[in-house]
Structure formats: C-alpha cells, structure tokens
Amino acid sequence: MPETSLPAVPGIRLASVPAGIKDWQRDDLLLLEIAPGASVAATFTQNAFCAAPVTVARAHLGSGSVRALLVNAGNANAATGERGISDARACCAAVADALGIGPEQVLPFSTGVIGEHLPLQRLVDAIPFAAGSLAGEAWDAAAAAIMTTDTRAKGASRRVKVGDLWVTVTGIAKGSGMIQPNMATMLAYVATDAAIDQALLDTLVREAVDASFNRISVDGDTSTNDACVLIATGATGPLMSDPGDTDYQRLKQAVTEVHVELAQAIVRDGEGATKFVTVQVDGAASPEEALRVAFEVGESPLVKTALYASDPNWGRLVMAIGNAGVDRLDPSGVDIYLDDVQVVEAGGRAPGYSEAAGQAVFDRAEFRVRVALGRGACSEHIWTCDFSHEYVTINAEYRS
Questions:
Q1: Alpha carbons 155 and 139: distance in angstroms, whole number
Q2: Torsions phi, psi of 127, nearest 5?
C-alpha cells in the first residue's frame, strides 16, 4: 500500500510504536482511540483455548462505552493462565492512564506465539509514547504494526453516500496462517464515521464476518486469538436503526465489501501460497450443505497440494466431495467445473474433457472450482489457497 492509501475516519485516531515484543526492528504495538459516543461491536474466536486478551476484551465489550483498542504483535498471550489475564488487564490500565479513560473502556488484542508471557513492562513503557502520537491518518502504519507472518499489510476502504453526506469505511487486518472459518488467526478492525444503533451494529458485524472471514481457509486451523471489531463513531449523519433503510443498505454493502476485500487479502497472503481459488458449490439442498462441501474441498491437504503442483488431479476433488458427509449424495448427479471447463459430468469424467484443458486452468494463479450437486437450489462459496513447501518451512521455523 502507498503511504497514505487508507483515508482517515472521523472519530478515530491511531498510533503505532515499537515495543520490542520480539527481536525485530519495527512497530509492533498499535493504539486506536475511539471518540466518545461511538458504537462498537465485535466477534471473537470459537477456539475453547481462547487467549487472555479475548477473555478480557469480551468482558470489557459488554461493560459499557469502548474508547480504545490496544493490539500487540509477536506474542499471543494465550495459554498463559491467570498471569495472562492479569497482564492483559495491566495493559488496559496503562492505556486508561494515558488517555484518561476507564480500564474497562479498553479492548486488548494480541497475536503471535502461543504459551509465552507478554513482556509486560515493554508494553506499559511504550503506551504513553503511542498515546502522544495519535493521528487520524495513520491506518497504513497500523496495518503494518499488527503483522506477524504476513508478507504485506492489509487494508481496504470505501466511501458511501448516506443521505446528503459522504461517510468513510476503512479497515485493516492481519493473518496468513492458522486460518479457518468461524474466525481465524486473524485480527481485523473496521471503522466508519456513520452513526449506527448498537443493536444494528451487532447484527452488521456478524453478517459482514459471515460473508467474509468465515468463508476463508488457509490451513483449516482456528486460532486462539481471532477477533473482528466494527466501530461506528457517529461523527457523520443521523443515527441509523432501521435495517430496511436505503441509506443503511448502501452502508452495509460498503462495510461488507471492506470485510470481503480484507478476507481475500488474507488468503492471497496465505503462508507460502501461490494460488487463490474460489470453491463454489451450487445445487445444494441447504446453505449449510453447500458450505460443508466447499470447505471439505478447500481444506483437503490432497486438493491443496495438487493446487500447488498445478496438477489437475480431479480425482482429489471427487474424493473431498464424497468425504463431506452429505446425506444420501448421489454421485451420478454431481458435475464439476474448473472455471468454464467441465471436468466431471454425472459423477464421471466429462466426455469433452481433456487433460490439456484442465492443465490450462490449474496453471492460473487464480481460478474457480465449481461443484454442482444436483440436489436443490442453494449455492455458497469460500476462498482458499494451496499448500506449498514454503508453508511447511514457515511453520517449522515459526519459533526460531
């Protein structure tokens, strides 16, 4: 991203500073300040081993007005017991002191290595410097500060007209491995200056996440630290509370587009990934069935290694579909396409299919696998990537 590619959101100020959380020379601590009166909603990981900051953030989110987010990279503060909770709370207290707010008004977030305690004093010492550096046009630096194994910062923005006024939706995310639906090893922060009723914002963040981050997979593993936060500062325009309102629908589309762009950026930056693949399932009996088949295909190690090898081994697709547990699936009703090339017809090799045609699709950096189940009218899709040698290397050397 160019240096000022992400526009400011009225009501939000950010600062990124180096806290020395790992042995690296970079910003690794982000402070995001939220104007009074804003609405804040969030979704969190469903991993039972959720990290200490997730536990504290959930509690603080329900306690009242959120005024700040604190995000550190390099250390997950997960599986750290009572000390982990205490450290997360201490970070919130340090932010509260620096900004003159209550500690329960701070949401903490961490990402990085699991099972190690935070270098708490380094974080506490860095927070006042961050508080003194807050600025509205600092989203790009913020996106870089929260990276771990990411190879590039991830940001997206939209402008949308609400009534006679223009509002901004800007967001950042991090993540490239341990990515699986129902959140992933990802953090995402999206803000708008529109005014949205709290109940409606709670619904919007769930809908936007379901359309984006819950449709991606890099490796099928759900992290301990996942979170997505949606902020409506209320700095521009009247309060929106009617989900059927035309202005709200336009805003919802813009918010969803930002979430989708960030989610796809995570898959494109998947650890060692060389392919970006959409898996689309049509003709399912239910949306749940369609997603189950899509994820079975998109998360199969055999499919993903075939993608990396650019090997159109469609037998692996058939195998994955058959493993999805679809009740009374009739293989003779299944068709499979690689982009516009039909490879399977009525459960067997399509008469017009040629290996050269399949190879031409698999040689592309981006393409679509479409499965037609012939069982109903429901369609769903996900985004996935391949497994490469580099994925193994990155994770084998993650702690070294």
A1: 8
A2: -60, -45
CATH number of 12-268: 3.60.70.12
Nearest to 344 by CA among 335, 352, 355: 335
Return the SS3 of 262. Answer: helix
CB 70 within 8 A of CB 91: yes
DSSP label of 103 = G
> How much is the mean pLDDT over the chain?
92
CA distance 5 to 192: 16
Catalytically annotated residues: 185
Q: What is the CATH number of domain 276-396?
A: 3.10.20.340
Contact between 333 and 318 under an 8 Å Cβ cutoff? The reply is no
Q: pTM of this prediction?
A: 0.91
What would the pLDDT profile of 30-89 be if each residue is shown by its tens digit? 999 999 999 999 999 877 788 999 999 999 998 879 999 999 999 999 999 999 999 999
Instruction: Please list, in sequence order, all residues whose beta carbon lies within 8 angstroms of the beta carbon of residue 265, skipping any fewer than 6 positions away.
Output: 154, 156, 173
Q: What is the pLDDT of residues 283-317, one digit of tens each?
A: 999 999 999 999 999 999 999 999 999 999 999 99
Radius of gyration in angstroms for the set of CA atoms belonging to the chain, rounded to a whole number: 22
The amino acid at 204: L
Which of 37-46, 214-223, 255-264 has the least mean pLDDT? Answer: 214-223
Q: What angle do CA 331, 333, 338 make, to 5 degrees?
A: 90
